[in-house]
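debug: dumping io for the single-chain case to check the tokenizer round-trip. Nothing else runs in this session.
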Amino acid sequence: MNRAVPLFASCCASVVSMRSALAVLLLVAIGGLLPSHADAQARRSAETTAKASQGPAQSAAAQRASSARVQSVPARATPQRSSSSDARAGGSQQTSRLSRAAQPVDRSARTAPAVAQARPGAAVRSGRPTRAVSAVASSAAVAGVVAVPTIGRAIGLHHVADPLSLRSSVALVMDQHSGQIVYQKNPQAVLPIASITKLMTAMVVLDSGAPLGEALQVTEADRDTERHSSSRLPIGSQVSRGDMLLLALMSSENRAAHALGRLHPEGLSAFVAAMNAKARALGLMDTRFTEPTGLSGGNVSSARDLARLAAAAHAYPLIREYSTANGKMVDVGRRQIGYRSTNRLVDHPQWEIGLQKTGFISEAGKCLVMQATVDGREVIIVLLDAQGSQSRFADAERLRRWLSESPGAGSISPQAPSVSGPNAAVVQRAWPS
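debug: decoded output
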């Protein structure tokens, strides 16, 4: 009994000690948590105080940031407006405006960091601002490419005034029989001629004596890989050489023209060589060809040379017939496709057209060459680098009316208007010879 009492007392003391120890540990843990909670409350309180004290300044900064973001889009949209204004100017002003048109893309790239600074952490939270800036910059870059001026505009030919206020930077009317120049504007300028090239292509095809009834197949080699232009002539089509020639002249079909050159009896290189040899034989000193379609800007000539080229092509009955055809259904092997002329004047009741060819690439602008009879006079009309999709036809109509209304309608006056550009002496050096 005496021993039991001390043992019981010892157990009770142990229990009390353990409880005390647990209580101490709990108090220590709570004490460690309280400073963290206090610190968090202190930080929140400090932030609230800072926001309250900086409220007006921060609101102003937010407004400035918002303004910067709103104004950044018009600033990056500037290239399209600059391009439009460039389309109405030329010469030295054109060069300076071109440089300004290229700058906004760089400004858009510099605007992105400014937007990011106006909104700290925006780039971290979301990629949308960056993607938006990239999209706008890409659009501006595309707009700048589309608005690249023609060669004639870049060297200032559009600055030249003429009595008829033609929209074409180069114009020439030649009497077909006497060779006298009736009207001229920048006739010495050597410029890209686009699909007017196909007149020479047609002459070389006919000169080769290759059978027109032979079926030619369109292949991947005839696809336009330079400008990626579309074509209604499917790859794999089987079309006769005669119909290929018709499509090239009437509808300016590029795959047809390329197939004609590629399937020349001696090959494409020999075909192009024959084109240049024919030009030299005709005395076309300003003319050069690099391929048979006109898609290359390397096919160049002057208005004087093109008038002689058109007169030579007019001597081929089939070129006269095919170039002035209004439309035809063509069998392409699996089906028939309807094609029409690219020249809306062909069926015009006031026009008597014996030969025509249109053309367009970005460097050349809208082009037109025609042989026509106006009040009994057979003339060759050349129009290059016209502004607007219909301007070349409107210019041709102005020339037709001028020829009809001119005094002495039965004769050609050598004193007719003649205009040359501000850089007449160096125009030929402005484009590779």
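debug: round-trip ok. The two ends are 131 Å apart (CA to CA).
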